[in-house]
Amino acid sequence: MKKNPSDVQSKPSVQVLERMFTLIDVLASREEAISLKEISEKTGLHPSTAHRILNDLTIGRFVDRPESGSYRLGMRLLELGNLVKARLSVRDASLAPMRQLHKLIQQPVNLSMRQGDEIVYIERAYSERSGMQVVRAIGGRAPLHLTSTGKLFLAADDPQRVRSYATRTGLAGHTRNSITQLPILERELGKARQYGIARDNEELELGVRCMAAGIFDDQGQLVAGLSISAPADRLDEGWLPKLQSTADAISQALGYVNGRRTALTQAIAE
């Protein structure tokens, strides 16, 4: 039987991945650095093969080389592990409060996080029995400047990072309401910094408005946004205090000491 060329091509890549995981497992088995000779013996890989793969892992910071000929796990793995931990803990801490908020307002509640120049929706609370509603798909993505949660993350960046984002993305719009000019976006982000909330006024999708409040971890870092999405004519400003208190409760569950919501009353009044 004739072999599929794609199958033949994929075998070397799979083999390299298997060897890479084997090397990482060996490094994980010891707290101190391990010599290339011992790594080769434990994995059964030829020293030149092990050296080549370890060198690639070192470039990616998955492996450190404290001295010539010895290796240990790198800080990149810790960074990725902390990222996964943060996402899981945010989701776990958010589920019950999100469901409670949904019961109060009868509109979908979304939990989203930043990934690069986009937000990604990682959880939602909604009811299939409710009437007209805006339901965001888990795993869905959207540009930062077109979403309420995305604006919170941009507001947490310094001005130079915001300008870099604008340059990279071109501030492309999706609707006639989309903010596509940097000065207008900067004014919007100033409001988000002042009040701790952000809005999407039919900027991502016509007929849909959103409001979002930030979720912070024990280090005071913005890690997620909690948002309410609703048909434009149904978004109720009276939901804002409920949204804010829910986001605060989740932040407190993550270890954040709440002391920044002094502008909320002013925001509601305006």
From TrEMBL:
SMART domains named in the record: HTH_ICLR
Pfam families tied to this protein: HTH_IclR (PF09339), IclR_C (PF01614)
Domain HTH iclR-type residue range list: 14-75
The entry's keywords: DNA-binding, Transcription, Transcription regulation
Residue stretches making up the IclR-ED domain: 76-256
Top-level taxon of origin: Bacteria
GO molecular function: DNA binding; DNA-binding transcription factor activity
GO terms of biological process kind: negative regulation of DNA-templated transcription
PANTHER family the record matches: HELIX-TURN-HELIX TRANSCRIPTIONAL REGULATOR, ICLR FAMILY, HTH-TYPE TRANSCRIPTIONAL REPRESSOR ALLR
Protein name: DNA-binding transcriptional regulator, IclR family
Organism, as annotated: Paracidovorax wautersii
